[in-house]
Hints:
By secondary structure, this protein is an alpha/beta fold. It has a domain at 9-196: NADP-dependent oxidoreductase domain (TIM Barrel). Helix content is 40%, strand content 13%. The strands form two sheets. It has an eight-stranded parallel sheet with strand order 3-4-5-6-7-8-9-10. The protein has a two-stranded antiparallel ribbon with strand order 1-2. Helix 1 crosses helix 9 (243-250) and helix 7 crosses helix 8 (221-231). The longest helix is centred in the middle third of the chain and has 19 residues, at 87-105.
Amino acid sequence: MSTIPGITLNNGVVIPQLGFGVWQVPDQEASAAVRTAIETGYRSIDTAAIYENETGTGLGIKQAGVPREELFLTTKLWNSGTRDWSGPAGREAVLREFDASLAKLGTDYLDLYLIHWPRPMHGSYANVWSALEELLASGRTKAIGVSNFGQAELTHLLETSSVVPALNQVELHPYFPQNELRAFHAEHGIATEAWSPLGQGGDLLSEPALAKIAAKHGRTVAQVVLRWHLQNGGIAIPKSVTPSRIRENLEVTGFELDAADLAEIASVATGKRIGPDPTTFDWN
Length: 284
């Protein structure tokens, strides 16, 4: 079984560098996928309220039979426009959503709780963050962080809060390497976690330059890309419901990308996102 290294977050909590994501996994399939992932060796599971599979994720964790304290469980607050996220009403909404996620997951604490999107046009994420600080202080979550935040939103939190986000989960893969944002994270002690770390497959996994590196190391392109994330000091949460792929994605130790490999990977960057731009993304 592969041994995945961990990263120590800015509050001393350790998160595995490679986790298992369940985005777009239907609730009825999540339990089997999560159970398989844990049995294969994953110890970090990432879900979100909007994925609508927290119940299945929690069931999979229970079925796997691994003690809760040996797992790192992350979920995210869907701070949608259907509620008021400002002032006292926003605080109460956060606490209700947190309680709902815990109930679905079947746990009494989280290892990491994230604000899913900043929605900067509404100006309420700082108020939401203060509610997460309250959850952290109570011990109901071991760490708090954000997702899809840019430098402007992070800077505002740094200037207005006493708690630095432990982590920012963003779109990140060789086509969209987020070099400036990763440097900002490093400067301020914020860990970088990649969603869609494999670029959602497709073109990236067919990239000739990456195929050449994979052949050189006797690995798959997916393993090379995940190794790239780890060597960059990042955290990755690949998703799959196929047991062989779940296993393959975990086997990213035992080889090292050299300077030539890293330069070749850097050369494929396009700067284009797959997902929406967080500065303008909104919903009702």
